[in-house]
Structure formats: C-alpha cells, structure tokens
C-alpha cells in the first residue's frame, strides 16, 4: 500500500497530554514511535483522518478541533493550542424543523429532518435531466460464494444501522424540502448466475446490469439504492449496486461496501462483526446550519476570477479519461511529502493547479476543491450520507518553485477548513460558478483497500456516475500506486481536452517529484 512515511521518532519527553495525543495518532495512523514534534501529515494523515483523530481525542477528554490540527499539526503544537482554549462554537440548533413542519410529521416514521443544500442541488439537477444525472453505479468482485439468504441478512443489517439507507425526500408537503427516515425498508436485491460466461461476456453482462440499475430514482420513494449479485464461480460473485448521489458520497459508499461485505463474510461463518455506532445525520445538519459569519468575506475575495468556457447548447457530454502515475514518480512524490511535512494531497493539488493554469495560459489557477464536513464526533467517520462540499480556492503560482506551490496548496486548503460547511450554492452567488469549473479531489478510501488486503474483494472495480461538473479530476490512492481519473464535458471543451489535461497532470506530477527546486513556470 502507498503510505506517507512516518517521521523518525523524537527523543523529547512527552507531557501527559502529549502522551495521550501521540497514542491517538499511533492508533489512527497505524504507526508506532510518534514523537512530540512529528508532523501529522508527514506521518500519513489527511483531512479525513483528521476527523477520526479529533473524535478519538475527544473520547479521551482532549477537546481539539479540525482547525486546531490543521493550524498546529504536531503533537506538541496541537496540545499547546488545546491548552490555549477551544474556539467558541455557535449555539446548537435544538429542533431542525419549524413548529409548523413538526406538526406535519406523519405517524410511523423514525425521523424527519431538512434536506441539506447540496442534496437539494443534486435532486434539482437530477430532476431537470429526467433523473439521468447523479445516479452512481459500481461493481465489485467478492471472493466468497453467493448465499442469497445471508446476503439479504447482511443488507438488512446495514439498513438497520444507517438511517439514510431508509430515507426518502418529501419536496412539497413541508415548508422546506425534508428527508424522511422510515423505520424499516428492504433494500432491493436481484440475483443471477453468470458463472458460465467468459471474461468478455461477463463484462458485457455487467454493463447491462449497470445500465438497468442506473435507471432514474424517484427521490420521494425509499430506498434510493439498488443491488444485484451474480454468481461468477464456486467461490465468487459480482456485486453491483447503484444509488442516488444525494444519498451517499464516495467515503460513505466505500464504508457501506466495507460493512456489507465484511458483515456478509461474517454471517457465512456464523459471526456478526461489530462496527461501532454511527453519529445521527442530524448532527451534520446542525453543523451546516450554524452561522459562519466570516465565510462571505473569505469567498468574495475570489469573485474577480476570469470567465469560464461556456456550456454547449446541446448539454454536457461527459467522458472519462485515466492513467496510472508512474510508480517511480509516485514513490518520489510520497517521499517529498514526508520531507516537507506536507500531505500528499497538497502536492497533488499543486500539480493540479499547475496543469489547470497551463491549460488556461495563466500563472494562477482557480480550483473547486472537494471538502468534507463530517461531524468531528465519535462515530462521525462511520455515518453514511452526503457530507462533501465544493469550495473554491486560488493558487497564485507566479515565481513559485514546485515546493512553494505545494506549500501554497496546503495553506489554501487550511484557509477553507473554517468554512468547510458553508453551502456551495451560497458560494456560487458570491463568486460565480464558472471560473471554478475544474474540481480537485484526492481519494484514499482505506476501507476499500482493506477489503482487498483482507482477501474479500478483488482489486479494481467498474464504476460510472453521471453528473454536471464540467471538469472533475480525481487523484486515487489505490493502495499500491496512484491513478489519475478525469471526467470532462467534451461538448464544451472538445474531444482532445481530456487527454491533453491528463498529459499535463502527469507531467506536473513528474516535475514536482523529480525537480522540486525548479520553478513551475519552467515546466
């Protein structure tokens, strides 16, 4: 697996608080010998693991925040910030529904809560496309025999654990759009036998299954997810599923797959694994609705960005392009990150910014960065739902070396942390959506990698999603390397844009890994 190497253990003694914090880091990062001056990100941490660290620290009585850890990413630094006091939190929202809407809640449902701003945006755009957009499909080869009874039991277990798997939207009954959680919902499963197919025939049938599962969802009917299982051999089956993107983000989909497959494997031998208790989704809604008075000023400064390429009259035509990062470049990149005490994500964001700037013929890049607003509470990393947000940042690369660019990228992300739950729709009003049409995401789905390492799922998967982001760039840590995937609107940019941007991204990664002292402009 590709890991960011831990720094060498420090010899300085710990205070009692630092010793507890170091223990948390070692537990979450899966390493030993963390010292008081070791850097969280060079030890393998990233923005999603920050959530787990904060929750684990709070369990031990250390009230740190995500902002604390980004601003002071060493054990000693975060503990010093902790002793200086926790930032004041906005007042909690006690009831998310108005009294008028609370009176309309139907009998016999578990929960009614408002839809998030991003959920509403996805639903609206999906409905405008007759349901074609934001239906995600994926297929994975499971290394266990198919037992339909046990698989249905595993589906029932995850449905009982996660409220959003039993959720439907109501767009008209209440004063605002809401999500209604039912007490019980059966997750639909179709079963087939594809064991007689050769690999080409199997892939052809998988494509047919994905197209069938990928038909539009009615957002007002639960559940917003479907499953299909096909026998592919005596000890294997292909699990295919689809879901509305308003239901799950990528981290949640990986967590669902992990719980479902691990739970199914346990049921086959008469065991039911314990996964911990997820945080109720309403906690995220309360955080989203908390005031962020500084966010408008932060984003208004980005409102003078250059105009974007206009959309084609006939609508988007999304195509995917991808390639692995050469292993030598990936290895050097991770080594640079450790040496610079920076997350690998920052180095990749710098490479992304350089490629976007080169494509535009400028020395600055405007990027829509995927962020996560998951609650920093125990079980927050287990909750299924849509927690992502797209927020703009600008990288001014004029005169910057590749190392400078990586540090600029880290500072830009750190500047977003305090505003990570400010609604994307409100940001678009402040800055305009066009200039930030190229999104960036670093994907390191550890639970999916763990399934492969545990021998439960074959490496690789088939995936597809229809969406309305003009340029979407994912850097994927697959556990044994790095891969770049681009989805681009060819109607807007032309057929040659995706391959050209992919080449620029690979070139930028190579230059950053090979010659970090060079200026970005020289690449």
**Could you tell me how far the N terminus lies from the C terminus, measured between alpha carbons in angstroms?**
30 Å
Tell me the number of strands: 14
Q: Which structural class is indicated by helix and strand composition?
A: alpha+beta
Strand order of the largest sheet: 8-14-13-11-9-10
Q: Pick out the low-confidence regions.
A: 1-10, 86-92
Biggest pleated-sheet summary:
6 strands, mixed
Number of helices: 18
- The 3D shape can be described as globular
The overall pLDDT, averaged over residues, is 88
Fraction in helix: 25-40%
Please state roughly what percent of the residues sit in beta strands, choosing from under 5%, 5-15%, 15-25%, 25-35%, 35-45% or over 45%. 15-25%
Radius of gyration: 23 Å
Could you describe the 3D structure shown?
The protein is of the alpha+beta class and 523 residues long. Helices cover 39% and strands 18% of the residues. It is built from 18 helices and 14 strands. It has helices spanning 16-29, 47-59, 66-71, 75-83, 99-102, 117-128, 148-161, 199-213, 250-268, 281-289, 295-300, 327-340, 344-360, 402-417, 424-431, 446-453, 490-493, 497-514, and strands at residues 109-114, 135-142, 167-170, 178-182, 189-193, 225-233, 236-244, 318-324, 364-372, 388-396, 438-443, 462-465, 471-477, 482-489. The strands form three sheets. It has a six-stranded mixed β-sheet with strand order 8-14-13-11-9-10. Strands 5-6-7-2-12 form a five-stranded mixed β-sheet, with helices on one face.
């Amino acid at each position: 697996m590709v890991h960011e190497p831990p720094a060498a253990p420090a010899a300085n003694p710990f205070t009692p608080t630092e010793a507890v914090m170091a223990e948390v880091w070692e537990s979450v990062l899966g390493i030993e010998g963390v010292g008081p001056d070791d850097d969280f990100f060079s030890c393998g941490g990233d923005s999603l693991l920050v959530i787990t660290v904060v929750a684990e620290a709070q369990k031990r009585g250390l009230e740190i925040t995500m902002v604390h850890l980004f601003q002071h990413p060493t054990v000693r630094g975060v503990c010093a910030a902790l002793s200086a006091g926790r930032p004041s939190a906005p007042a909690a929202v006690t009831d998310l529904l108005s009294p008028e809407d609370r009176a309309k809640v139907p009998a016999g449902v578990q929960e009614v809560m408002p839809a998030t701003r991003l959920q509403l945006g996805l639903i609206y755009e999906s409905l405008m496309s007759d349901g074609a957009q934001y239906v995600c499909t994926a297929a994975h080869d499971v290394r266990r025999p198919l037992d339909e009874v046990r698989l249905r039991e595993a589906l029932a277990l995850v449905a009982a654990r996660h409220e959003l798997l039993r959720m439907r939207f109501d767009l008209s009954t209440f004063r605002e759009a809401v999500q209604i959680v039912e007490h019980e919902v059966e997750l639909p499963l179709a079963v087939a036998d594809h064991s007689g197919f050769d690999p080409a025939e199997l892939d052809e049938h998988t494509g047919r299954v994905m197209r069938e599962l990928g038909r539009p969802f009615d957002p007002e009917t639960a559940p917003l997810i479907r499953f299909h299982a096909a026998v592919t051999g005596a000890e294997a089956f292909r699990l295919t599923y689809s879901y509305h993107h308003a239901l799950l983000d990528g981290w949640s989909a990986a967590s669902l797959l992990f719980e479902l497959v691990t739970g199914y494997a346990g049921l086959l031998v008469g065991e039911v694994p314990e996964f911990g208790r997820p945080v109720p989704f309403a906690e995220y809604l309360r955080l989203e609705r908390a005031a962020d008075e500084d966010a408008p000023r932060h984003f208004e400064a980005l409102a003078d960005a250059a105009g974007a390429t206009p959309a084609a009259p006939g609508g988007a035509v999304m195509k995917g392009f991808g390639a692995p990062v050469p292993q030598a470049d990936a290895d050097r990149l991770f080594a640079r990150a450790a040496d610079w005490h920076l997350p690998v994500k920052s180095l990749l964001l710098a490479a992304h910014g350089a490629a976007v700037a080169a494509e535009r013929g400028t020395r600055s890049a405007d990027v829509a960065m995927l962020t996560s607003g998951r609650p920093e509470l125990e079980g927050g990393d287990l909750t299924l739902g849509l927690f992502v947000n797209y927020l703009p940042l600008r990288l001014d690369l004029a005169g910057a070396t590749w190392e400078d660019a990586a540090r600029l990228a880290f500072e830009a992300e750190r500047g977003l942390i305090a505003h990570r739950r400010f609604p994307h729709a409100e940001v678009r009003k402040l800055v305009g959506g066009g200039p930030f049409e190229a999104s960036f995401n670093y994907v390191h789905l550890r639970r999916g990698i763990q399934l492969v390492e545990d021998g439960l799922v074959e490496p690789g998967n088939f995936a597809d999603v229809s969406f309305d982001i003009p340029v979407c760039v994912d850097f994927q840590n697959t556990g044994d390397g790095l891969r770049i995937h681009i989805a681009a609107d060819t109607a807007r940019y032309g057929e040659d844009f995706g391959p050209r941007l992919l080449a620029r991204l690979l070139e930028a990664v190579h230059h950053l890994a090979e010659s970090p002292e060079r200026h970005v402009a020289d690449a």
